[in-house]
Amino acid sequence: MPSFTSFGTKKVNAPPEKPTKSRMTIILTGSTGSLGSYLLDTLVRSSKVERVICLNRSSDAEQRQWKSHRARGLSTELGPPKIEFLECDTTKDFLGLSELVYSSLTSEATHILHNAWPVDFNRAFTSFEPQIRGVKQLLDFATRCTYDVTFFFISSISVAARWGATPGSRERVPEKIIEDWRVASMGYGQSKLVSERLLAEASKTTGVKTAICRVGQVGGPVLHGQNGQWNKQEWLPSLIASSKHLKLLPSSLGPLETIDWIPVDLLAQVVVDLLPCQMELSQRRSKSQTSSNAVYHIVNPRTCSWHSLLPAIVKHLGGDVAIVEFTEWVTALQKNMSETPDYALNPAAKLFEFYSNLADKAVRFPKARSVTLETKQTVQYSPTLRALNKVSFEWMDLWMQQWAF
Fold first, then answer.
1. Same domain for 180 and 239?
2. Are 173 and 239 contained in the same domain?
3. Whole-angstrom Cα distance, residue 275 to residue 273?
4. Which of 31, 41, 145, 396 could tie 36 with a disulfide, CB 3.0–4.6 Å?
């Protein structure tokens, strides 16, 4: 993996100073997805943002954006002058844009918010090569910008999935670049870690300001009533849907028992809180420091237990659902898979190996818990994260209403 992390630019001792703007012009990738939609909605509502240029691969991105916002109860006023949609290919020179359009973007951008990334935990690292190439192209774009651009990269807790399993690692993952390649899990996490290191290297060699936002488990929205929902195909809603079918609900989640989830709409607000902070952070650092790179951790700083959320779930699943040990639930899931091979009724069957591994870890390492991220710096710069409450009965109750199992 180290061969992937060369930005290919000679180190500069003193990057030329570039002007700044009072209001931000954001280049946003991946705007049509779940987090992307909430990011765009939050950005356009901010008085600090002058314009958002959405770069997407599809030619019908604006139409897809409108449908996404309507389904989530977000603003459907998506036209100019504040929002512009451009079809692009970040793996190509000039991002797949005409040289004229590319040049125009370099003359007005103040921030790049790179959110586009396929979330697939089964893919090999090498299959993410186009995404890594896209990071390099966006970094090259940043070096060409007129203004003092900050490149924000939405990363993942997966870059540190094996933290604690390697010698010498601290209890919490620090808000710093990770030097040990071994802690990344799966191709997805490895590709994110390579990209993080690319940003750090670019900051050293070109002076471009970069910021890495490592995101933990993202929950459903909580600010828009029953509009929007946590994707039903993910592990938690699948577990709850199958629990209704099995009439059994696990009393514990093993290593995932400690809940530090963050609602997707509040996550978007945290990211927007952090966008203007890199300039201040850079100014605070010693002039002897060559890197203008920051690392933020976006997880809920206030935790609760899975057990505390069970009453909200049982309220919607009905009184005939029994609460059982996690291992018993996994055994029942496996038995039902052979009897009822119906993913609509039993969606957790598609993720059986994931739940089975969790239950196995719970038995072999009963005190083991998932990776914990340090949030000291992120809390300092984000009022939203600083004020965030732990996942509550009310939030879980709302998510159950949104799913309507």
1. no
2. no
3. 6
4. 31
Compute the distance between CA of residue 45 and CA of residue 83 in angstroms, rounded to an integer: 11
Calculate the CA 344 to chain-centre distance: 27
Dihedral of alpha carbons 70, 74, 79, 83, sign: negative
Give the total number of structural domains in the chain: 2
The single-letter code of the amino acid at 346 is N
Cα 397 to its chain centre, rounded Å, is 23
Show the tokens assigned to 160.
């540190």
pTM, two decimals, is 0.93
- Of 298, 321, 353, which residue constitutes the final position of a domain? 298
pLDDT averaged over consecutive 10-residue blocks of the chain (405 residues)? Answer: 56 66 95 98 97 96 97 95 97 97 98 96 93 98 97 97 68 94 92 98 95 98 96 97 97 96 99 85 51 91 98 94 98 91 90 95 85 96 98 98 96
- Are 228 and 329 found together in one domain? yes
CATH number assigned to the domain comprising residue 60: 3.40.50.720
Nearest-angstrom CA–CA distance, 263 and 265: 6
Query: CA dist 132 to 104, 114, 136, 199, 311, Å?
Result: 24, 12, 7, 11, 43
The token pair at 46 is: 């901010």
CB atoms within 10 A of CB 73: 16
How many Å is the Cα radius of gyration of the chain? 22
**pLDDT tens digits, one per residue of 295-324:** 999 999 999 999 999 999 999 998 899 999
Each residue of 47-97: pLDDT tens digit?
999 999 999 999 999 999 999 999 999 999 999 999 999 999 999 999 999
Burial class (CB in 10 A: 0-12, 13-18, 19+), 316: middle
What range does the domain containing 293 cover?
2-14+21-215+262-298
3-state secondary structure of 304: strand
Domain boundary among 270, 298, 326: 298
Q: What contacts 154, CB < 8 A, 6 or more positions away?
A: 35, 113, 114, 115, 117, 213, 215, 271
* 194 CB-near residues (< 8 Å, 6+ apart): 1, 4, 5, 132
